[in-house]
Amino acid sequence: MKKRVGILNKYSVVQRGEIKWAYLFIAPQMIGLAIFTLGPILYAGYLSFTKWNLIKPPQWVGLQNYLDQLQDPAFGNLLRNTIFITAGYIPLVMIVSLGMALALNQKLRFTVVYRTAYFMPVVTSLVAIALVWRWVLQPDFGLVNYLLSLIGIEGPTWLSSTKWAIPGLIFMRVWWGAGFYMVIFLAGLQGIPQEFQDAAEVDGASAWQRFRHVTLPLLSPTTFFVFIMASIWTLQIFDQVYIMTGGGPGEATEVFLLRIYRLAFRYFRMGDAAALSMILFLIIGCFTYFQSRYARRWVHYDLS
Amino acid sequence: MMLPFFWMLSAAVKKREDIFVLPPVWIPQEILWQNFVEVWTTVPMAQAYVNSLKIAGLVTLATLATSSLAAYAFAKIEFPGKRISFATLMGTIMIPSQATLIPVYILMRHIGWIDTHWPLIVPPALTNAFGVFLLRQFFMGVPDELIDAARIEGANPFQIYLRVAIPIVRPALVTLAIFTFLGNWNSFLTPLIYINSEELWTVPLLISNFQDAYGVETEWSLLMAASSLALIPVLLVYIFSQRYFIEGVALTGLKG
Asked: Which of A84, A231, A91, A96 is nearest to A165 (CA)?
């Protein structure tokens, strides 16, 4: 009791009366944090060291699940697919969304109409729109191959080809996500003071030079933010792949969450699934840490 | 950007044969509204709408309440353990919900909540670290003088929160509401794991099961009619309130 009074000494009488309210206010979120986030993370860690099929009790196997996963050719395959998707998607979506943002930032007529249209895919359910894109990418009668045929190109078989399935997924994803990053880039562009542009123009810089040496460096915090978010979300792709290819053809589009889902809820290999989700969790964690650490080297946070 | 939407609508009202015609006819001679009727009557679309509205609506209301209460306490009340509890909460922002998928599933299995809507409502309503972070930023901007004035008049912290602070942060609440609703409306992985019974399906789950039930490659008209029915209401809401969606993203960098 004495110690408790000691702790409370730095609070005024009014503040002391409010302490119990504060605990009441934070209680729902803190209880949720304990039950649905912190507890489960620890439990997932434990499960990843066990074999468990939900029927017999979990059996401790140490690092076996991790070794199994890392040696499984399926893991190498899904890692390759993930790298392929990320390497294709991130640069493409950043270029497209920055391009759209630059165009809209010119304050042309109908800006609101374009902005509304570009952002529209973002609000759609990935499941419903992925189904639409299966039809858009349909090899014989789909929209994309029809448009390609107009300029004399015979389109690939897209989702049913091991070579073109991932590019197909990437195109759909760029179409779906570019509007979101465009809005973030647009906010970033509007934060750049006009005087910088004007000064560069007075110095005789061309439009490209102004973009390269003024806009791009000053936009780097935004670019960096977009890069982080896009990378993390790309590692968590699920809905789109589940609907469009189901991981196929063969295992050409297998990704982390699809395999975790199958291991856990089709084959009931809970330990293996937990190990794989811990691996994904660690990769995402490293990514965030690595990026936030090296961000300062090339990001201009200072506008003064 | 809009072409796939037109393509979807065009296919949704075509006869089966007209789907496979090149060059494609954008507006078919004979508009077959029948496809929508067929989808609406063969799958429980109306029920799925009610379910999705109920789930997304409840999660949104509960999230607004729990996040704003916690955010207000972290922004405006001094209490022992404040720094450590806030730091712990913020430390979990980057934890992807998939990392806790399996343990939470096992927990739900113990409680007996498999094949109910509870696992889709309770965890998201009680775990929104980002919402707490966002609203805290806005509550910190509420002038202390206003709060002190209310205190002197004898208001308790809950009354101050409700009558003084909440009205000031309303724009942030609208943003959080839109994206919480949208995220839960479109959510797919959790319903896929927890829900079996047809009468409990959400809209995305229904679309996915509809795709499995109807042969892709033949029934494109019906599939596109189903997608249209799933998307059109959301798109209409979006078009009429696009300003809130877009300004919300610019404000917070939040993903729907």
From this structure: A84
